[in-house]
Amino acid sequence: MTPIRVMTIFGTRPEAIKMAPLVQELSRRPGIQSICCVTAQHREMLDAVLKIFHLQPDYDLNIMQPRQTLSTITTKCLLGMEEVLEQAKPDLVLVHGDTSTTFAGALAAFYRQIMVGHVEAGLRTWDKYSPFPEEMNRKLVGDIADLHFCPTPANRANLAREGITDGVFITGNTVIDALKTTVVKDYRFSTNLLNQLDYTNKKIILVTCHRRENYGQPMANIMTALRRIADAFPDTELVYPVHLSPVVREAAKTYLSGHPRIHLIDPLTADEMHNLMALAYLVMTDSGGLQEEAPALGRPVLVLRRETERPEAVAAGTVRIAGTEEDTIFHMAAELLTDEASYRAMAHAVNPYGDGAACRRIVDAIEWKFGLRADAPEEFHARNV
């Protein structure tokens, strides 16, 4: 029997972290020929993840350019995928989440009438400009996709609200699978500062802030609040791996540089970020992925956005939305730094996003769809969601 040709397409660091264990699972199945294509929307950060997971792409579009725009990313990806799909002739294309690579990859496959599977399907804020452009990317991919791999029942309900009910599977989130590979005991960081921090006697706060919708005043508010937290709580140290975006780096330098307990460092590799998260006391972030990863490691998360497409974590109690107003951010952080009961309630909540078997469920669903197994895959359900 001819193997099913399954192509994974991704281009950014967050996509790579979540797709790498899926590529590995696809490669283990005898009835599937796994083909990996990267766009390199984020070149350096993508390459670091590929190295960690020992992945060698079959195709590399290498589209990244200085000060790239959404239009250049999308068009270069779309044009590059045209040739790749012609050569590889996959039976199924898998895209992940909500990036410009995700949208362009799905659209390129649609143009060639190739079946599309959407990993991490069904996330919604119902505001097309927040997060921007991610909300519209994932909605458009939802309309294109034939198979929808939802992390949670709430994601499936979001799709049903849009009339999408066929080919929908609840799998958990593949990032939990990735953590099983990356987090290890007695981890040594390449940045020596991180090896010297006192994780036992200090409250280490891991910070990320980079989203486009936070550019301008929201980012100024967030960073002012962060400096205020460091000033008010001498037992805290803030570690901020600063995104490569010139806008973000300039803001971090303006508002946070020069403080003895705020450490502005270069972006970390996926394994370094995961291990730092495991050692931190608290995570403050506008990232989507960290909202899923930190709860799996027992770390409370304050979301530096006005809303989240991951309300399951809020319902479970692992995440709270702090928004982008200085006073709110400061007071919510202060509560977790001073109220032990409040902190424990978040740290010990059940993670609603997975059990480390999402990739197995996704590939089981693909095999079932193509007639390689008789039984439909089991569904993931968190205990308290």
From TrEMBL:
Its EC number is 5.1.3.14. Residues 24-367 form the UDP-N-acetylglucosamine 2-epimerase domain. SUPFAM superfamilies: UDP-Glycosyltransferase/glycogen phosphorylase (SSF53756). Gene3D superfamilies: Glycogen Phosphorylase B (3.40.50.2000). Pfam families: Epimerase_2. It is an enzyme of class 5 (isomerase). Keywords: Isomerase. CDD domains: GTB_UDP-GlcNAc_2-Epimerase (cd03786). One of its GO terms (molecular function) is UDP-N-acetylglucosamine 2-epimerase activity. InterPro entries: UDP_GlcNAc_Epimerase_2_dom (IPR003331), WecB-like (IPR029767). Belongs to the UDP-N-acetylglucosamine 2-epimerase family. PANTHER family: UDP-N-ACETYLGLUCOSAMINE 2-EPIMERASE. This is UDP-N-acetylglucosamine 2-epimerase (non-hydrolyzing). It comes from Flavonifractor hominis. The gene is wecB.
